[in-house]
Amino acid sequence: MKYDIIIIGSGPAGYVAAIRAGQVGLRTAIIEKENIGGMCLNWGCIPSKSMIESAKLYNKILKDAAKFGIDGIDKKAISFNYNTAVKRAKSIVKRLTKGVEGLLIKNGVEIIKGEAKITSKNTVSVENRSLEAENIIIATGSYSPEIKGDKSIIIDVNTLFEEREIPENILVVGSDSVAVELSQFFSLIGKNVTLATKGERLMPLADEYLADYLKGIFKKSKIEILYNYDIQDVNDKFKNNLIDINGKEIKADIIINARDRVGIIPKSDVKIEIENNFIITDENCKTSIDNIYAIGDVNGKSHFAHIASAEGLHVINKIKGINSKLDIKKYPLNMYSVPEIAQIGLTEKEIKEQKIEYKISEFPLSANGKAMTEGNSDGFVRILSEEKFGEVLGVQIVAPNATDMIAEASAFMQLESTVYDVAKTVHAHPTVSEIFMEAGFEGVDGAIHK
Q: Which of 56, 113, 328, 399 is the residue whose CA sits 20 to 30 A from 8?
């Protein structure tokens, strides 16, 4: 069987590329050895956000019900039912994965189950079948490297959201958004949480200003952070529910493995260049082999699903002769913390390294009427703009719906807008998004309500 494109992996990179390929008339096959939707839909983005929403609601009722005028709630009678929350998450996952499978079929994409092996630059074998294609796209994703030790107490992220009993003391290992979100999730449902990270700060890709703010959130939530420690083996360090970390004993009934991820490299008879456990690609996601591409987590450029999807669309367009620039800096970095955190564009450090004259305009949620009525006034919008002409270089948001609000900043940056354009954009009142307009005015002259 000969195809225009064979895609290995059906996560947000692979299935979006496949659907787009089908839409533009390319004969396409997608190979998946586990579940359609990949990690994001089945074990990561979707179930984790569902669980976080359950935890946020539980915590808000517990802390704020009386403040909002709701009487009669016995706090001692309220508890978080992990297994019920898991069932809700699984029902959402099932609906979405079936939807994706339906879209693939609707667009003429052949779904092949099994493990793929690249046998030449134009052929792939799977389940004793040999498939031929003009182009091959690797979209196999990533995983957290193993923590060696007793598997009854070490839980990998892809098996976390199963029905189980959750003990009191949780140790999360990792430094990126997954580790941060899981740490906060367990804290919100009343567990004692410690986060061990291999670096000197959380979220190494985030602006240092955001990382410092996040550090304050963790301190307020009594989540202890242990820096410069990447746990790889606990065989000799874990005894009686205590783990020795740099001479300090930490209570840990279970260890959540959210270590920094590495690429899942498919089997291949073709020598594809790899560096630091990721496939090397150029600005168009092309590998060292001319007609083989690698998109999403496996190329190491990002671990965000929306960027993986953008890469998938870009590659299909490229194959169809549509040339455009893939500018990852104009795609958001998002984190579903409490409050949420998002950024787009250059960080302050990157602006300084490029020796650009810039200004910062910031506006707090504490001066926003809608945020006050919702009881969510912690946060801000922060705009980094070029000094002379006011072009928006970067935007950072801390707010309950920052991951949605960042889309407005994305539109501004795609159009190369200035702070003057931001200030002129009228927002409905009262809305949290009004803080954009206020930050724009702050960049021009001065915020109206500050």
A: 328
